[in-house]
Amino acid sequence: MAACSLLFRLLLVLLTFSDSPAQILGLGVGINYGQMANNLPSPSRVAYLLRSLNISRVKLYDADPNVLVAFSNTNVDFIIGLGNEYLQNMTDPVKAQNWVLQRVQAHLPQTRITCITVGNEVFKSNDTQQWSNLLPAMQTVYRTLVDLGLDKQVTVTSAHSLDILGVSYPPSAGAFRQDLGEYLHAILNFHAQVKSPFLINAYPYFAYKDNPNEVPIDYVLFQPNQGTVDSITNLKYDNMLYAQVDAVYSAIKAMGHTDIEVRVSETGWPSKGDENEVGATSENAGLYNGNLLKRIEQKQGTPAKPNVPIDIYVFALFNENLKDGPTSERNYGLYYPDGTPVYNIGVQGYLPELVYSSDSTKNALSVFGLLILVIAYLISA
């Protein structure tokens, strides 16, 4: 009887990971899968973890072939990245074509690559040469996709920090920095032409950390609060993230565009920080990401765009121990590298254990293989 009970429990586990309707909560959220660490699980194990969470949208900061191969035939949509160090090379059509052939076309259609981010937070640096290279690189990559017949399935964009805003409050007065005007105006024209989204990395945490006495903690954590009212539009905001997104929409509109969607390519909250990093706690991180997921499930739009569900990629999947900077930079993950949740946000994931063969070689068996062996043994017993 005990064997039958164990068999039933094992079958339930298998069903949880199958393609049946027994999937757990579908979050409708994307996740940033950074790899600046020396202790992360293999991409194949990460694929199981994300499948257990029913997360089907992943953003990378590169085009790691190990990850793209591991996610073959998983129905996960990938945003892949071209680092800032590639911008100059990507203005060369030959080099751009070689990159697209090797990093994109070689993995299609087995792995679903849907977007390429050319550069990340380029305007955060003072490298004006990179500023100048950004748009030509985006254009060259896009033309390469057109030449290869891939432009209908793979979009081209770039991710920006909120530092590109010169004015962010009230949201309706949002405006880009004057020194970036000529660059961003041309980039927006490109987005409108190719119909790709404008990506921003938005972190209310930074605003709170810098001004904890002026920024209400409940306002940045999506907790119940009085909110703020835009004095121009009379729209009420009950959280800072939506105000930040609408400020970007206003800045884009001020440059003559109302046809470009703003998406959040990064947002999150650190679970640990240095002494001067106010608010970086696991409790606050759990509240921020947990409340954010609830709003994503509700398909909420911002006050200025109520009918456009906000599109968000949470930062990040794992804590990354090799990142530079303050302690917080290494503690944005939802999970520790061993698959243990850093805090509870109301969803359960599963990272398969590594199981080694009897001759002690390092050929790992997947959890599914192990379960099948146990079931076969029980049936024959």
From TrEMBL:
This is glucan endo-1,3-beta-D-glucosidase. Belongs to the glycosyl hydrolase 17 family. GO terms for biological process: carbohydrate metabolic process. InterPro entries: GH, Glyco_hydro_17, Glyco_hydro_17_plant. It catalyses: Hydrolysis of (1->3)-beta-D-glucosidic linkages in (1->3)-beta-D-glucans. The keyword Transferase does not apply. Its EC number is 3.2.1.39. One of its GO terms (cellular component) is plasma membrane. SUPFAM superfamilies: (Trans)glycosidases (SSF51445). Residues 1-22 form the signal peptide. It comes from the Eukaryota. It comes from Theobroma cacao. Keywords: Glycosidase, Hydrolase, Signal. One of its GO terms (molecular function) is glucan endo-1,3-beta-D-glucosidase activity.
